[in-house]
Amino acid sequence: MDGKELREALRAGRRLYGTLITSTSPKWLDTIASLSLDCVFIDTEHIPLDWHELGWMCHAFRGLGIAPIVRIPRPDPFEACRVLDMGARGIVAAYVESAEQVQLLRGAVKLRPLKGRKLERILSGQAELDREMVEYVRNYNQNHVLMVNIESVPGLEALDDILAVPGLDGVLLGPHDLSCSLGVPEQYDHPLFEQAVHQLITKARAKGLGAGAHFLPSIEHETKWAKVGLNLILHLADMTLFRRALNEDLTRLRKALGDDVSEKRVGDIAI
What we know:
Blueprint: H1 3-12, E1 16-20, H2 28-33, E2 39-43, H3 51-63, E3 67-72, H4 77-85, E4 90-93, H5 99-110, H6 116-123, H7 131-140, E5 145-150, H8 153-157, H9 159-163, E6 170-173, H10 175-181, H11 191-206, E7 210-214, H12 219-228, E8 232-237, H13 238-256
Parallel strand pairs: 1-2, 1-8, 2-3, 3-4, 4-5, 5-6, 6-7, 7-8
Helix pairs in contact: 4-5
C-alpha cells in the first residue's frame, strides 16, 4: 500500500489495520510480512530512534508493501519534511490543538517543495499556486498522508476548525493523554471519555476523513469504536504483544511444573 492508496482508504472509511513497531531488527521483517498489515506505526515521540534507523525502517516496510506512518513529537513542519525525506508515507503530528498548526503541517506535507514567503502567502490565502504548479505539487505529494493526534480538551474544542483545513486526511485519537486531559486518567469507559471519542470519530467521518486510534486498551474497545466509524486501527505494539504472550506462557509453564507464579501486574506502555 502506497501513500495514495492509504489516503484514499482513510477517506473512504475502509478499515485499515496496523500496529506500533519498535524493533529495528531486520529479522522482524519476515514476521511482519506474514501478518497482512496495511500499515505500521513508527513513533519518534516516545521511542528512541535515530534518523538512519527510521529511514531504514520506512524503506524496508515500503518494500513489503506496508505503508509506514510516522509520528513526530510536535506539529513542526520542518520535522515533518525530514521524516518524509526518511521515507514515511504518512505523518502524524502529536498533540495538535489548533487549525493554525495543521496549516503549517499542510505546507510541509501537501505543498512541497514550496517554502518561505511564497508558501506563507499561499497558506494565508493571499496567493494561489501558479497554473503549472498546481499539477506539479499534486503529483509531487500524491503519496504523502497528513494526520494529526487529538489528545486534549483544547484539541477537541478546536476540532471543527482542524477538520476544515484542506489537505488533512485523518485524525488519530490518543487515548491515554486524552483521558488525562479530560480528568479521567485511563478510565476508558467513563462517559466523558466515550463522549469525546464518539465526537472525534463521527465528526471526522462526516467530513470524509479517516478516524483512527492507537493503543486502545482492548479488542472490545477497538470493536466498539470501529462500529461507530473508527477505520484506522493501530493495535498495541510489538513489545506489548511479546510481553503479554511470554508472560502468559511462562505463567502456564510455572503452574504446570508446580513452581511459584509471580503476581506481578503486566501493564502496557502509555503512548
